[in-house]
Design a protein that fits this description.
With 119 residues, the chain is of the alpha/beta class. 45% of the residues lie in helices and 20% in strands.
């Protein structure tokens, strides 16, 4: 599977990459929503995007709403991975088009379980 991780933390991207590559997936990375949009333009398809909410340049919520409203990746599943833990944030993300929501800190088991839920 082809997966894009979008997080301003290099450590979080590395953790996700290690978990996902161990499962045999191809992993691409972007440090913010703007660079993630550039990645979508360069690559014809991603199966899944793991998306942080709080990032500089373009945050994850803005990326999510733009991608969904412009139908840029209609078959790509998007899982928010963020430290925002209020139910209002979860509902806002799901309403905007996120397929799942993971609160940091996460485990490999949580990542796998959420992937299984959306794929």
């Amino acid at each position: 599977m082809k997966i894009l991780t979008v997080d301003d933390s290099g450590l979080v991207r590395l953790m996700l990459k290690n978990i996902l590559e161990e499962q045999g997936h191809s992993v691409y990375e972007a440090p913010n929503g703007k660079e993630a949009l550039d990645m979508l333009a360069k690559h014809d398809h991603f199966d899944l995007i793991f998306l942080d909410w709080e990032m500089p340049v373009m945050n994850g919520y803005h990326f999510l709403t733009r991608v969904r409203s412009e139908n840029q990746a209609p078959n790509t599943k998007i899982i928010m991975v963020t430290s925002l833990n209020k139910m209002s944030n979860v509902l806002q993300a799901l309403k905007a088009g996120a397929d799942e929501y993971i609160m940091k800190p996460f485990t490999a088991e949580m990542i796998t379980e959420k992937m299984d839920n959306v794929l």
